């Protein structure tokens, strides 16, 4: 069986595709997997690092409004469709699974042209343009959010890496804290703005550092690979550990009692899967989907939420310190977050994909 995965640009598109690839390989070690991407996306680094074949097609960003740029789209899109169709011919694709992003649109249209079964997975509560198109071309539509408005969609959750969904935070806590140079017995706050970091979170957390330290709270702060600090927190106890990037986010989650973070779809899915409560600060730009991502978690008691414009060091001191100083409340919120999580989305979607591919072969 040969499966082609189309999801590129951001980690939010690529990571679920790679989690599905891992689940497919677990179910059938002989399955062939080819990932489609563009040269401008993170997939050029992430896909080969996970050991999967990557084939590139031209990127065709679709303008969201009628502009002069729209006139150049048909010709460029045709070239990308031809490239994607050629790849599907070479690998003899049995099914295409799309996750959105620039590469998904030509992939969906190429699969339709070649008669290859199409599977769409939309992680966000507000589907992007590519997946809205893809959902019109197939009956096989799956979502990572229960309220995503796509016809015939089935909610399965977001495929996550096995090291995340199998993580036992309680048994791994001491080892994880030692890994980052943290004390084993102190309340721990994880601060992260996602794969690129977030300036507003960085500034507010660093300004709150003296108060957090006085209250006996240690901090693991992932500032993002492109960010630097003008002033480092002074050395002392409890520890305030600053890192630009963390490869082992499973250990970061295990080390923490609470998180201060953005509310991207992947972040919300991972935190609920591991049962880590959080203060969510939705990205202030875009279409508001990050607020929708976090809302069910907050309503279920697994987190709190604040607007980016209202996030200050004073807010952290007044709202997070009382939670971190109350272990019983942390446990209650952790259990509530865990109830919202889906740990089986990768295997569930993998079984569906294999079934759809088999049905396509038998026609």
TrEMBL record:
Q: What is its main location?
A: membrane
> What are the recorded GO MF terms, alphabetically?
UDP-N-acetyl-D-glucosamine:N-acetylmuramoyl-L-alanyl-D-glutamyl-meso-2,6-diaminopimelyl-D-alanyl-D-alanine-diphosphoundecaprenol 4-beta-N-acetylglucosaminlytransferase activity; undecaprenyldiphospho-muramoylpentapeptide beta-N-acetylglucosaminyltransferase activity
Catalytic activity as recorded in UniProt? di-trans,octa-cis-undecaprenyl diphospho-N-acetyl-alpha-D-muramoyl-L-alanyl-D-glutamyl-meso-2,6-diaminopimeloyl-D-alanyl-D-alanine + UDP-N-acetyl-alpha-D-glucosamine = di-trans,octa-cis-undecaprenyl diphospho-[N-acetyl-alpha-D-glucosaminyl-(1->4)]-N-acetyl-alpha-D-muramoyl-L-alanyl-D-glutamyl-meso-2,6-diaminopimeloyl-D-alanyl-D-alanine + UDP + H(+)
Give residue ranges for domain Glycosyl transferase family 28 C-terminal: 188-346
Q: Where does UDP-N-acetyl-alpha-D-glucosamine bind?
A: 10-12, 124, 161, 195, 290
Q: Which UniProt keywords apply?
A: Cell cycle, Cell division, Cell membrane, Cell shape, Cell wall biogenesis/degradation, Glycosyltransferase, Membrane, Peptidoglycan synthesis, Transferase
Write down the InterPro entries for this protein, in alphabetical order: GlcNAc_MurG, Glyco_trans_28_C, GlycoTrans_28_N
The UniProt entry's GO biological process terms, in alphabetical order, are: carbohydrate metabolic process; cell division; cell wall organization; peptidoglycan biosynthetic process; regulation of cell shape
Question: What does the record say about its membrane topology?
Answer: Peripheral membrane protein
Per the record, its GO cellular-component terms are:
plasma membrane
The places in or outside the cell where this protein is found are: Cell membrane
The Glycosyltransferase family 28 N-terminal domain covers 3-142
Q: In which pathway does it act?
A: Cell wall biogenesis; peptidoglycan biosynthesis
Q: What is its EC number?
A: 2.4.1.227
According to the record, the segments passing through the membrane are: none
Q: Per the similarity annotation, which family is this?
A: Belongs to the glycosyltransferase 28 family. MurG subfamily.
| Entry function | Cell wall formation. Catalyzes the transfer of a GlcNAc subunit on undecaprenyl-pyrophosphoryl-MurNAc-pentapeptide (lipid intermediate I) to form undecaprenyl-pyrophosphoryl-MurNAc-(pentapeptide)GlcNAc (lipid intermediate II).
Q: This chain belongs to which protein, by name?
A: UDP-N-acetylglucosamine--N-acetylmuramyl-(pentapeptide) pyrophosphoryl-undecaprenol N-acetylglucosamine transferase
User: Taxonomic lineage of this organism?
Assistant: Bacteria, Bacillati, Actinomycetota, Actinomycetes, Streptosporangiales
Corresponding gene?
murG
